[in-house]
């Protein structure tokens, strides 16, 4: 599709761009004390974008001379990004950490990041891949270091920059090798070119695949590219930690699925045998081992944490591991499982982080000890947090169980050679129970009955908690509509 | 009533919602609501027994509703002779449990809400006929158990609760993997009725990594269920959970929750993997023997009365395992001994029910003495018979029932199990009779130390058992005595179903060789 014509299908991104501009300009007008009002502009823009996506319908096409795909698959991830951005904007109102800072830039940068994530979810050209990744990364560096007066936040930002620069450099190198081999930057074109390559270029192909994998692995914080995660997650403002653990991860998975499926895969369908074009390395087994190691390392380290925030940071590595189980399968069921899991994960993880933000504001800390007796003092918050913890563990009847169920089902469906992966995943869920339930233990088993029972003072907190908790609970019982929506979103642009 | 089974399952949840609406200071009202809801549930369960057609061995009162069509998940309920006694047992123990919990005064609202939720979870497992639904109920039951042990339990409650949770979850995830494996190899359905027909043929001869698929799935399921039973060596969570849990929760744990494991093996392993039964029967009998002897020896060594009772559960479940293994007697290679198989498996199910009533009685009695003396040290009493004669009488009934004295229901079931198992597992049965001896020894020895001998001055004015406690004990004691003399009502209820089960195992299994 030509550039000009593409613009008519580019409404969501255009609205977001206008939102960013409006946010920056309005920030100039507001005084320091009312700079948080920029959030309303951003929220308005995000909601409009959501409508624009809904109205856009489900055309499958490419935009801007084949650099961006317009398909239900990317729309699904755009909706995920929007929901989590809206939730994070709302959460930021209650953040204790952020209240001393001017908030105008914060919200504008969140909106810019959303644009970057949109592009990540829909890029079908390696240049666009790189551009989108960099937009997201630079905005993340900025947001991670937003607490200027807090040395941990500065440290987080600096570490993030160094790791980010390093891994995107490696990835760029991998992409350039791929370009050298194929002579094109388009996914589809690369795929045809790779199919025609002689055996002597196999080594270069493997090298580039490994480098690119490292870049993606960094984005979804897979072991062994995860070392930045805990420090960045701990130092960043908790709202940003929540955002980083959900939205970029979702977009990273979208990009990874699309890239491996279209560049190294069979262009006609989402089927297995995807890995046949790069011989020499047992890719599915390698990725399976990476998934198993990722979840195990995440869990083992999460057990040892004393801070709930840090525990959630490590456990998010474990969750990336669960989702990675379905990557080597490259089957329709696998992609489906990842998408369902991401949706469920969005609600439960954002909810858990929001409770941490709330406890941090109310009791001045985010350690396990700060949760002591919370269930007695504030039963509502306690029960909701318990729900999130059980859901993150993957116990029925919660959304987390349904997500895991579909993932395990995909793995088992793929055949007996993957059964070990399912068993490792299942045992890891048992391990994760230990640290998730520790929060519940501190909330309910410690502490005594208090005379008065408190509700959160602000009704926004209550509403936001309910907005995260109700889907977490209801999707555990009735998920048919979600399943239908996702199966309709499984259409990936395949070139035309 | 069209949805009788749904009502039985979901009634406690309705009660939970009602309790949630009551202000937390109105503790009496909360208890009354819990009692009323459990009472209605018990009435429904007894009504179900009345209208249940015991002559056929098929599922009755089936309910079916679409749930998640894209994954073939359906809401299916049904009751047969195997699940009916368990439903009645749960309804009865759930009802009595409310009265056992009457003295709870910490967070009453939370306690009874969770208590009712537990009830729903257990009922759901017994009545669900869709694997997905079964699994959800199986796990739902863990959440209230964690809190009930962890918040209202004894000094080591936090450790006991997490140990219980981790052990059972470990088992459950293996069950989940097995369920998914069955789903994808046997025609993509969670419908247990369909799986019972398709699984034995679909899995026949399938090899995974050189092993028979039947064996793999059997082992995954068996570990999951064995943890619940608990089968040695997975039993270590049990004494701890029992000792730390509040009385009513120990009662439910021993009375009903342990049966879920055996129920699962009979309902799922036996019907869907009949070949596996023949492969595993010997091991099952040996594990049963270990449970019998090990449980009895551990019980003999205990100083804490509650721990003694807890280990007696390990011991009693061992007999049930032995009876279950006897099902292979009916096959051709074992001499077509249908009577033996019937005796064994009917005995096993009867033993489950009897253990439910007897161990419930034992735990209630332990709770009674603990409420008064504030300790459970067997050596710390002595001569209680003169202070609390009525209590002593009930303990005598419970202990004698527990050690399998003729005239009590425990004797009938144990005798049936031995009759059934003897022709196939001669040595094991002979050795396990030592267990009976030990069984008698630990009960009688404990009885002697607590009730006879010089009276302990400290306990001269210990109040006698009260009416509320009597109310919880009398029905259980009556059932034990009546079924001990006249077991027919029970056996009539289960035998038709169990005959179908034996037929299924023998006709579909044992033919293909399990590699």
Plain-language structure description:
The complex is a heterodimer of chains A (496) and B (515). Chain A contains 20 helices and two strands. Chain A is an all-alpha fold and 496 residues long. In chain A, strands 1-2 form a two-stranded antiparallel ribbon. In chain A, helix 6 (126-144) runs antiparallel to helix 7 (151-182). The longest helix of chain A has 32 residues, at 151-182. Mean pLDDT of chain A is 86; it is low at 267-272. Chain B is mostly helical and 515 residues long. Chain B has a domain at 290-489. Chain B is built from 20 helices and four strands. Chain B has helices at residues 4-21, 27-51, 83-100, 108-127, 131-140, 142-152, 157-185, 192-202, 213-228, 237-244, 247-272, 274-301, 305-325, 338-373, 384-387, 389-402, 409-421, 426-451, 467-485, 488-508, and strands at 60-68, 73-79, 207-208, 211-212. Chain B has a two-stranded antiparallel sheet. In chain B, strands 3-4 form a two-stranded antiparallel sheet. In chain B, strand 3 and strand 4 (211-212) form a beta hairpin. In chain B, helix 3 packs parallel to helix 14 (338-373), helix 9 packs antiparallel against helix 11 (247-272) and helix 16 (389-402) runs antiparallel to helix 18 (426-451). The A-B interface holds A 376, 390, 395-397, 401, 405, 408-409, 412-413, 416, 419, 422-423, 426-427, 429-430, 433-434, 437, 440-441, 444-445, 449, 453, 478-480, 483-484, 487 and B 24, 67-71, 106-107, 135-136, 139-140, 142-143, 146-147, 150-151, 157-158, 161-162, 165-166, 169-170, 173-174, 176-177, 180-181, 183-184, 208-209.
């Amino acid at each position: 599709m030509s550039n000009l014509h593409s613009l008519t299908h580019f409404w969501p991104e255009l609205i977001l761009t206008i939102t960013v501009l409006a946010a920056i300009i309005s920030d100039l007008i507001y005084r320091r004390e009312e700079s948080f009002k920029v959030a309303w502009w951003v929220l308005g823009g995000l909601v409009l974008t959501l409508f624009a996506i809904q109205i856009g319908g489900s055309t499958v096409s490419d935009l801007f001379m084949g650099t961006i795909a317009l398909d239900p698959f990317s729309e699904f991830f755009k909706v995920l990004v929007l929901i989590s951005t809206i939730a994070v904007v709302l959460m930021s109102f209650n953040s204790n950490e952020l209240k001393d800072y001017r908030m105008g830039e914060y919200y504008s940068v969140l909106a810019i990041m959303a644009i970057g994530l949109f592009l990540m979810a829909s890029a079908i050209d390696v240049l666009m891949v790189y551009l989108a990744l960099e937009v997201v990364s630079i905005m993340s560096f900025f947001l991670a270091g937003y607490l200027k007066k807090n040395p941990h936040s500065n440290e987080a930002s600096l570490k993030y920059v160094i790791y980010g620069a390093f891994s995107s450099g490696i990835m760029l190198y991998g992409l350039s090798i791929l370009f050298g081999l194929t002579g094109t930057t388009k996914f589809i074109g690369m795929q045809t070119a790779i199919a025609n390559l002689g055996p002597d270029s196999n080594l270069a192909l493997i090298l580039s695949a490994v480098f690119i994998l490292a870049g993606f692995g960094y984005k979804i914080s897979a072991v062994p590219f995860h070392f930045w995660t805990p420090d960045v997650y701990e130092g960043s403002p908790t709202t940003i930690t929540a955002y980083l653990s959900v939205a970029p991860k979702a977009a990273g998975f979208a990009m990874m699925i699309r890239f491996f499926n279209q560049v190294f895969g069979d262009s006609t369908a989402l089927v297995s045998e995807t890995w046949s074009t790069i011989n020499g390395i047992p890719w599915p087994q390698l990725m399976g081992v990476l998934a198993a190691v990722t979840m195990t390392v995440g869990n083992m380290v999460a057990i040892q944490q004393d801070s709930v925030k840090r525990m959630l940071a490590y456990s998010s590595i474990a969750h990336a591991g669960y989702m990675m189980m379905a990557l080597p399968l490259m089957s329709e069921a696998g992609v489906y499982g990842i998408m369902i899991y991401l949706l469920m994960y969005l609600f439960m993880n954002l909810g858990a982080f929001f409770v941490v933000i709330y406890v941090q504001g109310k009791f001045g800390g985010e350690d396990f000890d700060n949760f002591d007796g919370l269930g007695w003092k504030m039963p509502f918050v306690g029960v909701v947090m318990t729900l999130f913890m059980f859901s993150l563990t993957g116990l029925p009847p919660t959304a987390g169980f349904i997500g895991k169920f579909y993932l395990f089902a995909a793995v088992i469906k793929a055949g007996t050679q993957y059964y070990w992966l399912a068993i490792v995943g299942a045992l890891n869920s048992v391990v994760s129970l230990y640290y998730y339930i520790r929060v519940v233990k501190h909330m309910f088993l410690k502490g005594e009955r208090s005379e008065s029972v408190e509700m959160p003072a602000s009704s926004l907190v209550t509403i936001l908690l309910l907005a995260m908790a109700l889907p977490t609970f209801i999707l555990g019982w009735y998920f048919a509509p979600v399943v239908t929506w996702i199966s309709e979103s499984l259409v990936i642009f395949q070139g035309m | 009533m069209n949805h009788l089974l749904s009502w039985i399952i979901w009634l406690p949840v309705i009660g939970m919602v009602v309790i949630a609406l009551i202000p937390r200071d109105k503790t009496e009202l909360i208890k009354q609501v819990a009692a009323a809801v459990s009472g209605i549930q018990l009435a429904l369960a007894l009504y179900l027994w009345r209208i249940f057609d015991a002559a056929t061995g098929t599922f009755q009162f089936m309910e079916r509703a679409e749930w998640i069509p894209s994954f073939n998940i359906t809401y299916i309920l049904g009751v047969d002779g195997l699940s009916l006694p368990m439903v009645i047992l749960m309804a009865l123990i759930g009802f009595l449990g409310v009265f056992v919990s009457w003295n709870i005064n910490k967070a009453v609202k939370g306690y009874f809400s969770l208590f009712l939720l537990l009830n729903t979870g257990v009922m759901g497992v017994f009545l669900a006929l869709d694997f997905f639904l079964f699994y959800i109920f199986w796990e739902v039951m863990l959440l209230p158990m964690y809190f009930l042990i962890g918040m209202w339990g004894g000094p080591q409650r936090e450790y006991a609760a997490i140990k219980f949770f981790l052990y059972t979850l470990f088992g459950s995830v293996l069950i989940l993997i097995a369920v998914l494996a069955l789903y994808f190899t046997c025609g993509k359905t969670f419908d247990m009725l369909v799986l019972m027909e398709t699984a034995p043929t679909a899995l026949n001869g399938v090899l995974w990594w050189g092993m028979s698929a039947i064996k793999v799935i059997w082992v995954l399921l068996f570990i999951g269920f064995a943890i619940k039973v608990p089968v040695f060596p997975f039993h270590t969570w049990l004494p701890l959970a029992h000792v730390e849990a509040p009385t009513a929760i120990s009662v439910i744990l021993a009375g009903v929750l342990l049966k879920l494991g055996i129920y699962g093996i009979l309902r799922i392993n036996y019907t869907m993997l009949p070949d596996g039964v023949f492969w595993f029967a010997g091991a099952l009998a040996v594990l049963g023997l270990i449970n019998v002897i090990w449980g009895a020896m551990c019980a003999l060594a205990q100083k804490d009365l509650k721990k003694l009772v807890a280990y007696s559960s390990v011991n009693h479940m061992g007999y049930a395992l032995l009876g279950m293994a006897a099902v292979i007697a009916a096959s051709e290679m074992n001499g077509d001994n249908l009577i033996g198989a019937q005796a064994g498996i009917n005995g096993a199910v009867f033993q489950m029910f009897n253990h439910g009533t007897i161990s419930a009685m034992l735990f209630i009695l332990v709770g009674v003495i603990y409420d008064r003396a504030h300790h459970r040290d067997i050596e710390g009493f002595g001569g209680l018979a003169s202070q609390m004669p009525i209590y002593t009488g009930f303990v005598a009934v419970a202990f004698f029932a527990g050690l399998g004295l003729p005239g009590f229901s425990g004797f009938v079931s144990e005798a049936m199990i031995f009759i059934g198992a003897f022709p196939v597992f001669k040595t094991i049965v002979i050795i396990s009779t030592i267990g009976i001896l030990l069984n008698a020894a630990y009960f009688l020895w404990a009885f002697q130390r607590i009730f006879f001998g010089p009276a302990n001055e400290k306990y001269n004015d210990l109040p006698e058992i009260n009416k509320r406690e009597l109310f919880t004990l009398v029905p259980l004691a009556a059932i034990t005595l009546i079924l001990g003399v006249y077991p027919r009502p029970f056996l009539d209820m289960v035998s038709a179903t169990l005959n179908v089960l034996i037929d299924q195992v023998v006709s579909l299994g044992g033919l293909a060789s399990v590699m």
